[in-house]
Amino acid sequence: MRTEQGPLIRRDAYQPLAFGVETVDLDFILDPQATLVTNRMRCVRNPDAAAGPIVLFGEGLVLVSVTLDGAAPTAGQVRETGSGLEIDVDADEVLVEVVTRINPSANLTLSGLYQSRGGYFTQCEAEGFRSITYFPDRPDVMARYTVRLEADAATCPVLLSNGNLLETGALPNGRHFARWEDPFLKPSYLFALVAADLKALERKVDTMSGREVLLQVWVEERDLDRTAHAMDSLVHSLRWDEDVFGLELDLDRFMIVAVSDFNMGAMENKGLNIFNTKYVLANPDTGTDLDFENVESVVAHEYFHNWTGNRVTCRDWFQLTLKEGLTVFRDQQFTADMMARASDSPAAAESARAVTRIANVRGLRSGQFPEDAGPMAHPIRPDAYQEINNFYTATVYQKGAEVIRMIHTLLGREGFRNGMDLYFSYHDGQAVTCDDFVGCMAEANGADLDLFMRWYSQAGTPHLKAEGVYDAASRTYALTLTQHTAPTAGQADKLPLHIPVAIGLIGPDGADLPLQLEGEVRDGNTTRVLQLRSESQTWRFTGIDAEPVPSVLRGFSAPVILDIVEDDARLAFRMAHDSDPFNRWDASQRYMERVVLGLAAAHAAGKPMEVPQAFGLAFRALLVNETLDPAFLAETLALPSETYLLERMQPADPAPLRAALIHLMREIGHAMQADFLSRYLDLEVEGEYRYHPADAGKRALRGLCLRYLSAWGGPTAIDLALKQFEHATDMTERYGALAALVQSDAPQRFDALAAFHERYKDDALVLDKWFQLQAGAWRWSDAAPATLDQVRALMDNPAFSLSNPNKVYALLGGYFRANAAEFHRPDGAGYAFWAEQVIALNKTNPQVASRMARSLEGWRKFTPAIQAGIRAAFERVSAEEGLSPDVAEIVGKALA
């Protein structure tokens, strides 16, 4: 493991290597402690690069031998460097053979080749391949691979790699082999191998051109009954990519493999996707509706990478959003389409799309907006980094997807498809840049996107101010939009961006008004996209008979913070009448935010917390409205996330915020207990569980009703939660009841937790839910045990392991990231625990350690007293010897 501070790598310093690689022939003799890797590379001089040696990167390798065209190198021809090997050659083409030895069983970083539950697995993105063999391990070096795997037949009966299977056979001493060939060019980060004891769910399907292909989902035998949904999701993804983008599976087979120990969610290796079990395994008894949704989304994401990431890949890691932002957008569109297609009516389909969009924006606001305001703020295409693993961020993924969505909004569905077609026609089989992608979009549509490119280079979340003036005499409404982006870490000067702003105007009767700009002929549209290209711009609408209520940023048409003056009455009006489902939801969130922060301010000042009566009336009007889709209501009546609210507090103070949230939930639950109970009873889904938008929406709203009732804490509510927990026939209902009990002051929650553990003690994924629920538990009274004490005790549970990322994310991540009031204890014990765990994780898995370290990166937004405790924790970690570049970069930027 590297322990030195990583050098600063800059995007503008990119240079192609002097030598590329045409073909790679890999031979693995797999052994737990001494795997032998023979790598034969046909290296070819790059005519577009400056002269230089063959550069091969390598980390933690035992070099056995090197030959050049079958002969030993001359003295000094091969040099070891701090990053690998350099080889001087005069010829334009040479066959380089490198033999290395590695120890998979000792590899706890879960990067490169490692062991999990007796099997061998790889993770090569971003730079894991260099810990397998010496290689020009960069995304712009693309080659064709053949792979031979040899292993013990008893422990590893399944041998998989990228592409198509060529040959299998038995060997002496109980061993066997398999040979694979990938006919497509790929960079080394997309290489994969799996050697393990697995079973497959298989399905054969015909592609749009009539080719029969084999789909496989490989898991441990005990998990086969949890693979059907992943397979269905794969088939749906294949069909959707054919229908929407005309993109066909290009291999004879496509494989998904589930592994328990995995740093990421999944990896899109060509034809052999390796997944965290969390995003493959699901059945009604072990998976919630959200689990089923996540499996479908992640399977789709990795499958879509086959074209947006694999067939066309990144020139360098600064272009990461080229594949990730684009593919997140594609999987979001897929999810919305799947939800809509499964809906029972056009209205339900519209609501399903809205709920999907709301979920996307919730994640953006609670995850990416804080990142944009912190020390790790960076554009979606960064200008520099020390450790690339730290830039697999919400900015690159989620904000990157929003940037792609804006292009889609500006060009329209047909224009976007034309741009995609041109992109593939120009760049199939190439490693390219974000400029290449946007250039294709512009060329295909005759559009000017030069100003739009600032989204790729400018960090921070823009504030969009909207001000409207109605003139009754001229029957006009003037809307002025102004943009401003605050300075971010390392980037003080901000320029205006090209922002698409979808708007509507609502009349006094609640109906949308036709929009006619001055000098235009009315076309009857009630929503239109305004393009803000400067710091400020005004649009004047004509033919307006009464002062309208503006509905700005419909569908969340741009990733900005909207600043608009709206009193309680106007927010309640939009909650009741806005025809745009997203903005209707957003109005409720704005109203809730105002109420919660007002309660928190009162609590901090020692004043009584009083919930405004008007808010209660608006909330109840939605709750009892049976014409609205339950899934939409579940989103609309849920309080904004604590993470998002802390971003809105100035300064952030978790203790009064938590007090305000508890008070509001109790008050609402108590005041509307009869309404919650009525809706809860009416929403029961009868029959066997099915993953379906209509059923999932009912269960979501039912679960929300139960949480409000349990927060109130009346005996009827607790009995209701206990009854649901004890008699539930699916995980959504069972876990929802457990969550309602845990997020209350009910003493019965401890028995319920014990019963849940006893039922699922042998199921690692379900126990992750159990760990996470307790780590994120609120203390509803001073008599409740301290959450930190519970987290420490849970670390001693036999099911917990600091070496398993899922366990760390569930328990430690659940405490650090999802339990602000308990983590930010006044005595600083939470920070001391954080430092202790970051230091421990740094020694074995720097990637996971850096993700835990980032839990505190936004520390400067808190009160001075809190900042002092966090600074001390950062300084403790910073002083640790042997700090990995992953953690050192996070801590260094936080303290800078």
- The CATH topology of the largest domain corresponds to Zincin-like fold
The tally of helices reads: 26
CA gyration radius, whole angstroms: 28 Å
CATH superfamily of the largest domain: Peptidase M1, alanyl aminopeptidase, C-terminal domain
Largest sheet: 7 strands, mixed
CATH class assignment of the largest domain: Mainly Alpha
* CATH level-two architecture of the largest domain: Alpha Horseshoe
Total number of beta strands: 30
Strand content: 15-25%
Distance between the termini: 25 Å
Biggest sheet, spatial arrangement of strands: 5-8-3-2-11-14-13
Oligomer: single chain
Cofactor: Zn(2+)
GO molecular function, one term: metallopeptidase activity
Family: Belongs to the peptidase M1 family.
Protein name: Aminopeptidase N
